[in-house]
Design goal:
Strand 4, helix 8 and strand 5 (about 225-230) form a beta-alpha-beta unit. Helix 3 (about 75-95) packs antiparallel against helix 4, helix 14 crosses helix 19 (about 465-475) and helix 17 crosses helix 20. The longest helix has 27 residues, at about 110-135. The protein has about 575 residues and is α/β, with parallel strands linked by helices. It has a six-stranded parallel sheet. A six-stranded parallel sheet has the order 9-8-7-10-11-12, with helices on both faces. Strands 13-14 form a two-stranded antiparallel ribbon. The protein has 22 helices and 14 strands.
Length: about 575
């Protein structure tokens, strides 16, 4: 079958989200053909280029989200009226209240939520149809009319109380954000030989990445599959909490993204969260439980095999060393880990802590790393055997690729126990890597940690250094228990978190979706009339058995313009005509 893979800020670019997962999926499903439709986030990402693509990728179409020049279109009176009506409905749905987010409500609230959701969807598809008919929507979304429509919606009876406080700068900010989010509406991807020709759209994330899939389903009836290893709406909420915006801006943008998320979940044939934590978020944001299928992200187990299976790798581990691996940022709460290690050192003076990782991008990551290093120097003065000797700190900050830790597998092999101290976590990749290496773990109870480790590690509350220290001491003092937990962790990881299980799961999901919601297309003859039995069953077999031009049954176009001609070989055309 032919898959339209929809991405935002990731595959096929060298850097970005879900890049490795997408590449493994495409390479693993070599029996299918993939078309990549990618939205880039930054100019730097585009300049870095693409990774090397496998042969099953038929074509790649890209579009920038970070910039959009005005299309220069001047709408006529009728088009301006259509835009005003559709955008006004969208603004009214956004300003209507939290029901648009798809929250769980009951009674009259449920009916109200349904009305708001329908209003949002109707307005969204109205704008999409206008963009398709007029070849663009960028200028209209940036127009003064859009800002005025937002202002009227904020001042209307029944609008959010917070929205009523919006000032002109706030409205301009919201309008600019909505324009950026809706840029995929103006793309030229929605044609019979574009996204309309695929059998299935697979969005690698929710939100804006899934928007082309929504439109393809609306225009052509192509089913949509949405995969979220990190729930986009949750990410928006967390990001909004760290940005200094006016309350009206935060409320309106939350309602907009909530409405978009609810429509994506409603339209999707299936939704595949990466863990139960993401699944609960999706249900809370309006996803139908019957559509949810948990598919754990696949990871390469082979590069950790030498450490996980080899006796030599196990003997290299220092029984007195704790290892932390990850990206250094405040959410990882290394401050609590350092205080916890101070408690451990009081009981076991020989213990060492290796912090392996690079700071997160931006100045905040570097600042946090410097703060952690200063705290480590304060808590643990350099040790020396004598007054004339040079000592070192029991806490070391290292990066992969150095002389002592040339690879990620060797980072986990360097210690007997792997620690995770996060206060916010989605799917804990470092824990899975430690499990592949056969290492026992001590983790904080956040995100999908408990779901990932099962009963193969110890879990403590977050921001509790004393509890973290006691759990680490319990395993440091019991080598047999460490070994037993490590072996169980590796067995669990090999069963649930490999690339092979991920690819097998999606192969089955693809077949299930297409078998239940096939794309219905109609072949027409030279007169522009539907041709019964004109599409043979062999057309669904990989390869090109016919040269027929196809069109979508749900939106007959022969009444609107020139007919779509069928180019069926002569003998077949004669037999079909006689049979008809």
């Amino acid at each position: 079958m032919r898959i339209g893979l929809l991405t935002e800020g990731g595959y096929p670019y060298v850097s970005g989200d879900a890049r490795l997962w997408c590449d493994r999926l495409v390479r693993g499903l070599g029996q299918h053909e993939f078309d990549i439709y990618a939205l880039s986030r930054t100019e730097r990402q585009e300049d870095e280029g693409w990774i090397r693509l496998p042969p099953q990728v038929g074509r790649v179409l890209t579009a920038p989200l970070w910039t959009a020049q005005s299309d220069g279109l001047v709408y006529g009176r009728r088009a301006r009226r259509r835009f005003a009506e559709a955008y006004g409905e969208l603004a009214a749905a956004v300003c209507a209240g939290p029901e648009a987010v798809g929250a769980e409500v009951s009674g009259e609230g449920a009916a109200s939520a349904g009305v708001v959701a329908d209003r949002f969807a109707s307005a969204l598809y109205g704008l999409a149809e206008l963009a398709r008919d007029e070849a663009g929507l960028v200028g209209a979304l940036r127009s003064e009319g859009a800002v005025r429509a937002l202002e009227r919606a904020c001042r209307a009876p029944g609008a959010l109380r917070t929205a009523r406080t919006a000032r002109v700068p706030d409205l301009l900010t919201v309008a600019a954000h909505i324009e950026r989010a809706l840029r995929p509406l103006s793309l030229d991807w929605y044609t019979d030989d574009g996204l309309g020709s695929v059998d299935l759209c697979h969005a690698a994330s929710g939100g804006t990445a899934a928007l082309p899939g929504l439109l393809t389903r609306h225009f052509f009836g192509v089913p949509l599959l949405v995969t979220e290893y990190g729930v986009q709406l949750r990410a928006h909420y967390l990001a909004a909490a760290t940005v200094e915006e006016a309350p009206a801006v935060r409320a309106l943008l939350a309602a907009f993204h909530g409405g978009l998320t609810a429509e994506v979940y409603r339209a999707a044939a299936l939704i595949t969260p990466g863990n139960a934590h993401a699944r609960r978020w999706q249900e809370r944001c309006g996803a139908d439980r019957a559509k949810l299928r948990t598919v754990y992200p696949g990871m390469e187990a082979e590069r950790f095999a030498d450490v996980g299976e080899g006796v030599e790798g196990s003997r290299c581990a220092d029984p007195d060393t704790l290892v932390w691996v990850g990206r250094i940022e405040p959410a990882k709460d290394l401050i609590s880990l350092l205080h916890s290690f101070a408690e451990i050192r009081k009981e076991e003076p020989k213990t060492r802590l290796r912090i392996v990782g690079a700071p997160a991008d931006g100045p905040d990551g570097a600042t946090y790393l410097a703060h952690c290093k200063a705290l480590a120097a304060q808590l643990f003065p350099d040790e020396a055997e004598g007054v004339h000797a040079v000592g070192d700190n029991p806490v070391s900050f290292e990066e992969i690729g150095g002389p002592e830790i040339p690879s990620l597998a060797e980072a986990y092999a360097s210690g007997a126990l792997v620690v995770l101290s996060s206060v916010v976590e989605g799917f804990p990749i470092s824990l899975v890597e430690a499990m592949f290496c056969g290492r026992a773990t001590v983790s904080t109870d956040v995100g999908a940690v408990v779901e990932v480790i099962g009963g193969t590690g110890l879990v403590v509350p977050p921001r509790n250094p004393r509890a973290l220290a006691e759990a680490c001491l319990a395993l440091l003092r019991d080598p047999e228990r460490r070994e037993r937990l490590g072996a169980a962790a590796r067995a669990r990881a090999l069963e649930l978190f490999t690339v092979e299980q991920n690819i097998t799961a999606f192969h089955g999901i693809y077949l299930e979706i297409v078998s239940h919601s096939p794309v219905s297309r109609v072949l027409v003859d030279d007169e522009g009339e539907p041709l019964p039995f004109g599409l043979p069953a062999e057309a669904h077999v990989p390869g090109r058995w016919t040269e027929s031009r196809l069109m979508t049954a749900g939106r007959p176009r022969w009444a609107e313009g020139a007919p779509v001609r069928a180019t069926v070989p002569a003998p077949v055309a004669v037999s079909v005509g006689e049979g008809a």
